[in-house]
Amino acid sequence: MKILHVVGARPNFMKVAPVFHAMSKYRDLNQAILHTGQHYDVNMSDVFFQQLGMPAPAFNLDVGSDTHARQTAEIMIRIEPVLLAERPDWVMVYGDVNSTVAATLVCKKLLIKVAHVEAGLRSFDRTMPEEVNRVVTDQLADLLFTPSQDGNENLEREGISSVRIHLVGNVMIDTLIKMLPSAPVIPHPLERGRYVLVTLHRPSNVDDPAWLRLLFDALVEISEGNTVVFPVHPRTRKHLAQIGLGTERTGNIILLEPQPYLDFLALQRDAALVITDSGGVQEETTFLGVPCMTVRENTERPITLSMGTNILVGRDISRIRSTAAEVLAGCAKKGCVPPLWDGKASERIAMILVGEVQAP
Ligand code: UD1
Fold first, then answer.
1. How far is the CA of 303 from the centre of ligand 1 (A)?
2. Nearest 5°: CA angle at 144, between 307 and 39?
3. Which side of the chain, N or C, has fewer Cβ within a 10 Å radius?
4. Chain segment 78-102, per-residue pLDDT in tens
5. Active site residue 201
6. Using CA of residue 22, residue 20, residue 174, residue 79, what is the dihedral sign?
7. Rounded to an integer, what distance in angstroms lies between the CA atom of residue 171 and that of residue 168?
8. 116-138 average pLDDT score
């Protein structure tokens, strides 16, 4: 049986790795990885494959960056001949990036079955490109693997048959549990529990120069009492440069290149507070028990609010300042680890898929 895993952007790589490893235990499954090339910088892509022990992708579409329509269309155009030549029995898609929805659309027109890993998450905010990708992918996919019960509820509300839905847990946490013992010591001059880690890359935070400046000013203020370390996504670096920011050191803010998986995991593990707009970081900090502030109006991962350490601070500078001050004064919210975030989600996925393949 042929399985093709389609990935394209940084947050896909830590999700495909455990599924690929779990499936490699089944001799009947013949699997390959297709990389769309949505992310192409060495430190946004190759370094993740190396650290996660993944083979180089068998196919690389090299699509690169472009507008949403052009990028999505280019992936569709370039993936179709590969699918026609390879004719996989199942295509596995991950998360909510443009590569996820593009591959799903093409597969369904070719009558190739699709399984969506990390299905059912909803921010209920269709101004986010990822929300559009989630809704379309979930409507079309044949099998939907959800990380938490809210995912099942969202899918059933949208009329998706419960037969297609499987609550398996969080594959990204599978990777975290496996890799955490290999995470390095944090670099000098950072000290455990004495710095704030920042990641920001959403268009809603970085594409508006006035808001980005306000946010950066708030970070400079937070850095007066604590070192702030900020690995900068290429999109963010471009927008910071346009407003004259982004030199190596501003105040007590250390700006870094995007970090490899293990190095970033170490930075999260030892931070006093993480300020982010990423999806995955909300989940990883919840698992690690590290306080997290999410600079967004909503989240598709509500379990990190109800059970975890995450606080939604919105686009509200005074709230960002006051919440950071509270957490850094020791009044952080305590959380616990959600059910099935136990390192075995990928094994469950592999077992279910093998059952599907063997079904008459
Ligand atoms: C994409 C995902 C987002 C995910 C993020 C993680 C979509 C719609 N968005 O957003 O959900 O959270 O990845 O990083 O799929 N660039 C480089 N090198 C690269 C990749 C990008 O320089 O390797 C620059 C380009 O200038 C590009 C910009 O970053 O225009 C944005 O990249 P793109 O893939 O369009 O979206 P992300 O913001 O990375």
1. 25
2. 85
3. C
4. 999 999 999 999 999 999 999 999 9
5. yes
6. negative
7. 8
8. 97
Rounded to an integer, what distance in angstroms lies between the CA atom of residue 72 and that of residue 39? 13
What confidence score (pLDDT) does residue 357 get? 64
> Going by CA atoms, what residue is nearest to atom 20 of ligand 1?
39
End-to-end CA gap in the chain: 14
Tell me if 129 sits within 8 A of 71, measured CB to CB.
no
Mutate to test the pocket of ligand 1, among 6, 15, 39 (most ligand atoms within 8 A of CB): 39
- Phi-psi sector, 326: left (phi>0), alpha (psi -120 to 50), beta: alpha
Single-letter residue type at 259 = Q
> Are 48 and 260 within 8 A, CB to CB?
yes
* Strand ranges for the chain from DSSP E: 2-7, 30-35, 59-60, 90-94, 113-117, 143-146, 165-167, 195-199, 227-231, 249-250, 253-256, 273-276, 292-294, 310-312
Give the three-class secondary structure for 34.
strand
